[in-house]
Design a protein that fits this description.
single chain, alpha+beta, Nucleotide Exchange Factor Grpe, Chain A, domain 2, 3-stranded mixed β-sheet, 6 strands, about 65% helix
Length: about 190
């Protein structure tokens, strides 16, 4: 065989060998590709875990913020309630004084003394009303056990049944809540 033929044979023998080499993957390259795929999967899983943890922390933050807002509102309301209870106790202790002013006015004859007592009583009543005190209008109204305390029943006509006919002691509300019920005479 000539040199040309030998070279030709070598080339044909090498050609299939290089084709096979291209088809077979180097084990080191395969390990790199596999580790890259694993790394990518691990990175994606880690990213998902981080996103999930971030969402949990955000939800926890939102709940804590809502709890703090509720605590602040509750504390503010408790302070208001304490002040209102203190005001209620003070005003309730002043109601007998107001009752005595009314009794004094009915007992005093006309004159300068009566005018002086009326002036003091008016200022006292205005100060109490400014603090949230309102009288319960009972005379002629239907009897309501939430606002009236029946101390006497009187026979009357059918139109007077269940109506307040007289008031022995005036009742009061403080900021819309019952402070003292009216003591009344009810028609039966």
């Amino acid at each position: 065989m000539s040199e040309k033929e030998q070279k030709k044979r070598k080339n044909t023998k090498q050609a299939p060998a290089t084709a096979q080499a291209e088809e077979t993957v180097n084990p080191a390259d395969q390990a790199d590709e596999l580790s890259d795929a694993q790394l990518l999967a691990e990175a994606q899983q880690l990213a998902e875990e981080v996103v999930e943890e971030k969402e949990q922390l955000f939800q926890q933050f939102v709940r804590l913020q809502a709890d703090f807002d509720n605590f602040r509102k509750r504390s503010r309301q408790e302070r208001v309630d304490i002040v209102n209870m203190a005001n209620a106790a003070l005003i309730q202790s002043l109601l007998p004084v107001l009752d005595n002013f009314e009794r004094a006015l009915t007992a005093l004859p006309s004159g300068k003394e009566r005018e002086g007592v009326q002036l003091i009583q008016r200022q006292f009543v205005e100060a109490l009303y400014a603090a949230g005190l309102t009288p319960i209008e009972a005379l002629g109204a239907d009897f309501d056990p939430q606002y009236h305390e029946a101390i006497l029943q009187t026979e009357g006509g059918p139109e007077q049944k269940g109506k307040v006919l007289g008031e022995a002691q005036k009742g009061y509300l403080l900021n819309g809540k019952l402070l003292r019920p009216s003591m009344v005479q009810v028609g039966s």
